[in-house]
């Protein structure tokens, strides 16, 4: 069974729906084993398309019990129902359709549609989960008004929630009760949500700029009641920020967030009733790290921002996913930049883009931010659609400034409120509002791959002129037309040899052709150019310059992001040189410039601890591997470990002094404390890498004494890379202390899976057998398997292929439970062609083995077949 049976959907085949659904009234009789769903829909022909006789509705794993049109039950020959849906052969122009179906929430291990999690009911309907609840026109351009009546046992499910406002409730016989909800906003089925359970509410309030009082409710299991304050504060901050930045207000009287333990993704923006992976809600300093706190703030904001960019204005079809996701990621990035620090946020976002998205673009699954086709839509919730999509949205802001962007965004929302639109509509709104021609920008939506921009500068002393020539090139994709030049904004500035910025030299250059030259007049000394400030476009930048120039920029650039960037480039060049030496079997020697540069940063009192810590972090093994062909992960690891040890040795007293100076403080999650912990953790990490009794003792001591999770995790991270009795003791004590906190236990699995200790594979195999491990919980499965396969290059790529086989076996088992999570993990094999031939062949063999398993899901099949074809 290959593509033939799993049909491929193409963007060019979009056709408007034959029917429209004005209202959907749902009644749920909840029961974990068998829930009955009654749906009443007002359906009419779409007046703007050619009429057809019948009606076709989507459905997936539904058991049809009854179907009627205008109150008359259909005879068997009047319809067909199967696993794909329900087709009624003849329908009037406008009618009322009633269906009754049965579903089994407790057997729904795919976690799409209605399912149970820790004894509660919840839903996930994006992208195509609503059809697993009832027969429906389950496409985002069919928007309806919903009412939802929920009936359930009152003792087990005292809390019954759905979208919109609560309009009624009452008691039923046999200890059951009901609640009815009404959502005044038309919405597509993917935004439907229902929750039923024994939950407690952490309440807050918000008054909008125009004076509307909104109840904020965070619903969690009772043992988590003390971990909601940060999510609530994040929500309030996001609501205020969206009003202040874009003039966008919330539109219902209540905003609910529910935390569930079993969830395929991060969170979901259902209208008025967001459902969250508990990882992005629950936090208190003893159980969540500073990074967790930042993650929660950004995901809570992301889902909130969707209320406008996604819900009020939604996508016409799933090919337009980046319309809501790229835009909303951009909005949450801007929010976090304002909340945390613009430079730190930009560094985090760019690192994530390079690690996940650049790799995707360089592999067999490269696709444009607006894909042309898919087999399983769930496979297209990708770094490209989300992260690169956000970078493309950022280009508008770079071109028009924050005010121009705001004007464009408001114009887009005002023109399309209440409708389902396309990426072209967004681009047009931006163009109209700013009086610009954005025709060429469409190429960013249509072309896959990461463009490379080469920059060459020349200085003419006599004319006091500096000229910068930029040229762009792109990878030619198999079976694709040759790529056309993109419009690429490149922010630059010139520094004088003394290290100060040449006044007036900071500009945004607009590269629109294959090659263009730009000149800067009145430049009396040979300048050093800072190019690509703020990462103004999702490109690879190649600038021919020496290590000394990078060290100079690292010390003097006026742009904080670019200082970090120069440091990374410097470290990357040194590391790649050493990878070569390792492979040639030559002795290794560390470039003194790098030690110098690190020492300067470490001693620079003007840098905050977060920026310092990020600057002192070497590029990851994953990022280094991207620069190589025929990757040998052992050589990359050897080179990087050598540099870590050398930096630890050379700057030993600085690290120790830094650690001691930042050791004491409180667990409060405030900027000064977070900065303090970041630099302290970095210092500890280098010290532990020395593997000396004294530094191991330091980590052990911190591990034993820590009351906050950031310090605790930092100490464990250091220890878990070693093979020594202290490590075994820490592993045992971590488990004993946190075995009843699922999110903390996930960290225990994840950190062990990512360890660089020589025995990591044996540990991972043993952990898969651990009583606390289960493939049924996505967080747990990812904590062990995804962390190992995607985050532990030496462990996963061990030369004998045993880890490939182990992970592939786990994927096959997981696929029977949850295809969506399995297909994420199987993507770790995608890059097989980029590895040295022996490993490449072993990876490919596992892909072939998975592909030859007849029963695999279409999710996994789509990924492995594309990976094999390359
Ligand atoms: N729209 C959500 C992400 C999401 C997508 C798919 C899901 O299930 C397949 C769940 C959540 C967001 O961007 O936050
Ligand atoms: Zn989103």
Topology readout:
Elements: E1 9-10, E2 19-29, E3 35-45, E4 55-58, E5 63-69, E6 72-73, E7 79-82, E8 85-88, E9 94-103, E10 113-117, E11 120-124, E12 144-153, E13 159-162, E14 165-172, E15 176-187, E16 194-197, E17 200-207, E18 213-220, H1 229-246, E19 254-260, E20 267-268, E21 273-277, H2 290-306, E22 314-315, H3 321-339, H4 342-362, E23 373-374, H5 383-416, E24 420-421, H6 423-434, H7 442-446, E25 452-460, E26 465-473, E27 488-495, E28 507-511, E29 515-521, E30 528-531, E31 540-543, H8 547-556, H9 560-584, H10 592-603, H11 609-615, H12 621-626, H13 633-650, H14 652-662, H15 671-689, H16 693-705, H17 709-719, H18 725-738, H19 742-753, H20 760-768, H21 778-791, H22 793-796, H23 802-817, H24 819-826, H25 837-851, H26 858-869
Parallel strand pairs: 2-12, 18-19, 19-21, 22-24, 25-31
Antiparallel strand pairs: 1-23, 2-3, 3-9, 4-8, 5-6, 5-9, 7-8, 10-11, 12-15, 13-16, 14-15, 17-18, 20-21, 25-26, 26-29, 27-28, 27-30
Helix pairs in contact: 1-2, 2-3, 3-4, 3-5, 4-5, 4-9, 5-6, 8-9, 8-10, 9-13, 11-15, 14-15, 15-16, 15-17, 16-17, 18-19, 19-21, 23-24, 23-25, 24-26, 25-26
Bound molecules: O-methyl-L-tyrosine and zinc ion (ZN).
Instruction: Name the helicity range.
Output: 40-55%
Mean pLDDT: 98
Largest sheet: 8 strands, mixed
Our measurement of the CA-to-CA distance between the termini, rounded to an integer number of angstroms, reads: 19 Å
Ligand species: O-methyl-L-tyrosine, zinc ion
Radius of gyration: 28 Å
* pLDDT < 50 stretches: none
Residue fraction in strands: 15-25%
Structural class: alpha+beta
Strand order of the largest sheet: 6-5-9-3-2-12-15-14
Question: With helices defined by DSSP (H or I, 4 residues minimum), what is the helix count?
Answer: 26
The beta-strand count equals: 31
User: Shape from CA axes?
Assistant: globular
């Amino acid at each position: 069974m290959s593509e033939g049976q799993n049909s491929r959907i193409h963007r060019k085949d979009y056709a408007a729906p034959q029917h429209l659904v004005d209202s959907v009234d749902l009644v749920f009789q909840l029961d974990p084993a068998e829930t009955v769903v009654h749906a009443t829909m007002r359906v009419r022909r779409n007046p703007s398309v050619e009429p057809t006789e019948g009606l076709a509705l989507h459905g997936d794993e539904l058991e049809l019990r009854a179907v009627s049109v205008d109150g008359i039950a259909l005879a068997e020959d009047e319809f067909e129902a199967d696993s794909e849906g329900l087709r009624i052969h003849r329908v009037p122009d406008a009618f009322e359709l009633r269906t009754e179906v049965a579903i089994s929430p407790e057997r729904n291990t795919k976690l799409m549609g209605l399912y149970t999690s820790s004894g509660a009911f919840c839903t996930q309907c994006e992208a195509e989960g609503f059809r697993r609840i009832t027969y429906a026109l389950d496409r985002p351009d069919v928007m309806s008004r919903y009412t939802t009546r929920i009936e359930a046992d009152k003792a087990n499910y005292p809390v019954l929630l759905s979208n919109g406002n609560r309009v009624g409730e009452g008691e039923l016989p046999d200890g059951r009760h009901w609640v009815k909800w009404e959502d005044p906003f038309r919405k597509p089925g993917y935004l439907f949500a229902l929750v039923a359970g024994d939950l407690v509410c952490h309440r807050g309030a918000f008054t909008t700029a125009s004076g509307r009082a909104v109840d904020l409710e965070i619903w969690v299991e009772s043992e988590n009641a003390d971990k909601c304050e940060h999510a609530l504060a994040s929500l309030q901050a996001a609501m205020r920020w969206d009003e202040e930045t874009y003039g966008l207000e919330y539109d219902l009287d209540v905003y609910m967030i529910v935390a569930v333990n079993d969830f395929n993704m991060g969170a979901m923006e259902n209208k008025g009733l967001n459902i969250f992976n508990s990882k992005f809600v629950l936090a208190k300093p003893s159980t969540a790290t500073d990074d967790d706190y930042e993650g929660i703030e950004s995901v809570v904001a992301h889902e909130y921002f969707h209320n406008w960019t996604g819900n009020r204005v939604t996508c016409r079809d799933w090919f337009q996913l980046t319309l809501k996701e790229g835009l909303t990621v951009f909005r949450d990035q801007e929010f976090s930049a304002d909340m945390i620090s613009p430079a730190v946020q930009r560094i985090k976002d760019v690192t994530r883009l390079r690690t996940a998205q650049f790799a995707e673009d360089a592999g067999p699954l490269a696709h444009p931010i607006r894909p042309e086709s898919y087999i399983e839509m769930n496979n297209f919730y990708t770094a490209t659609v989300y992260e690169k999509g956000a970078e493309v949205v950022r280009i508008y802001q770079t071109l028009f400034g924050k005010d121009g962007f705001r004007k464009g965004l408001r114009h887009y929302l005002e023109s399309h409120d209440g409708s389902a639109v396309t990426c072209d509509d967004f681009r047009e709104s931006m163009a109209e509002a700013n009086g610009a021609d954005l025709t060429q920008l469409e190429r960013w939506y249509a072309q896959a791959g990461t463009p490379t921009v080469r920059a060459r500068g020349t200085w003419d002393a006599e004319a006091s002129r500096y000229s910068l020539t930029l040229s762009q090139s792109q990878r030619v994709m198999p079976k694709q037309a040759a790529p056309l030049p993109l419009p690429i904004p490149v922010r630059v500035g010139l520094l004088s040899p003394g290290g100060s910025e040449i006044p007036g030299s900071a500009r945004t250059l607009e590269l629109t052709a294959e090659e263009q030259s730009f000149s800067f007049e009145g430049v009396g000394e040979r300048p050093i150019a800072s190019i690509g400030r703020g990462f103004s476009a999702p490109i690879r930048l190649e600038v021919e310059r020496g290590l000394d120039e990078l060290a100079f920029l690292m010390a003097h650039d006026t742009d904080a992001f670019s200082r970090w960037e120069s440091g990374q480039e410097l470290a990357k060049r040194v590391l790649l040189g050493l990878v070569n030496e390792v492979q040639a079997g030559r002795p290794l020697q560390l470039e003194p410039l790098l030690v110098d540069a690190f020492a300067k940063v470490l001693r620079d009192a003007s840098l905050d601890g977060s920026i310092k810590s990020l600057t002192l972090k070497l590029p990851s093994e994953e990022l280094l591997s991207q620069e190589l062909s025929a990757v040998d992960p052992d050589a990359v690891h050897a080179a990087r470990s050598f540099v870590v040890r050398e930096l630890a040795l050379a700057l030993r007293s600085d690290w120790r002094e830094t650690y001691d100076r930042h050791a004491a403080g409180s667990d409060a999650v405030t900027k000064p404390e977070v900065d303090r912990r970041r630099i302290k953790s970095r210092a500890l990490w280098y010290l532990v890498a020395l593997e000396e009794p004294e530094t191991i003792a330091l980590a052990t001591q911190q591990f034993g004494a820590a009351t906050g999770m950031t310090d605790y995790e930092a100490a464990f991270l250091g220890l878990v890379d070693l093979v020594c009795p202290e490590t075994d003791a820490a592993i045992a004590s971590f488990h004993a202390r946190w075995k009843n906190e699922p999110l903390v236990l996930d960290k225990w699995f994840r950190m062990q899976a990512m360890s660089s200790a020589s025995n990591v594979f044996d540990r991972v195999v043993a952990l898969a057998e651990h009583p606390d491990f289960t493939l049924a919980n996505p967080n747990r499965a990812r904590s062990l398997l995804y962390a190992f396969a995607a985050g532990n290059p030496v462990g996963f790529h061990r030369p004998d292929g045993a880890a490939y086989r182990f992970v592939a076996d786990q994927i096959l088992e997981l696929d029977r439970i949850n295809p969506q999570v399995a297909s994420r993990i199987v993507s770790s094999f995608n890059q097989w062609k980029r590895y040295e031939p022996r490993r490449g062949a072993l990876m490919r063999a596992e892909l072939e083995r998975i592909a030859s398993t007849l029963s695999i899901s279409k999710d996994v099949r789509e990924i492995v077949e594309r990976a094999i074809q390359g």
